[in-house]
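Hi R.,

Here's the chain you asked about this morning:
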Amino acid sequence: MSPEPVWLRHGKARLALHRLREGHGRPLLLLHGLGERTPGAVPAYVAGWPGPIHGLDLTGHGDSTVPVGGGYTAEILMGDVDAAIAHLGSATVLGRGLGAYLALLIGGARPEAVRGVVLTDGPGLVGGGIRPSSPNIVTVTDATGRSPDPYALAELSRDVRPPDYAVEYVRQTMHGSALEHPIAVCALVRPEWLAAVVAEPGVVVCPLDEALARFATVT
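And the predicted structure, written out as tokens:
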């Protein structure tokens, strides 16, 4: 990891975009799982990517801002990813766990700029199920400045993910992307939202190395 990340802004949050490897061509953007951060070096499972590789620390994680009092949602963190995509211009996005869900959302929100979405297993993949649970006020003591933010762990692990909502982002991706198959699912765990994604026409289920090879050749 470079000693100094590129600093981006999303609202009041200062985001760390780490350059894991320089190179030419389209970047690969890595989105970590819940409670994780960008790895300190290029992970072995993406070492074959031919272009530059970046990793984004989401709000409340790694070197990025830890806000006061929580208030996390997947849609807010999608704004973090949008800031990274705007900086990079275009990218293939690979997400682990929570990052996989965010990758799906940004693929639907920015289909022209996101040239391939890869969804893999990791912390936070399941979320909080398909329906809201009983109201619960999260109380965390002595959380100021700690990363990962305990509020993020508590709130995002309860993040509701209805299958029909996820499917809307799949359809937006399919409609707006120039790629024939812009979404590749490489996760073995299939919560209900991801099972619904897999069932959509045009979504590819394949091993990770195959997904990366598929998107690496996209012009």
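The mean pLDDT is 93.

Let me know if you need anything else.
M.
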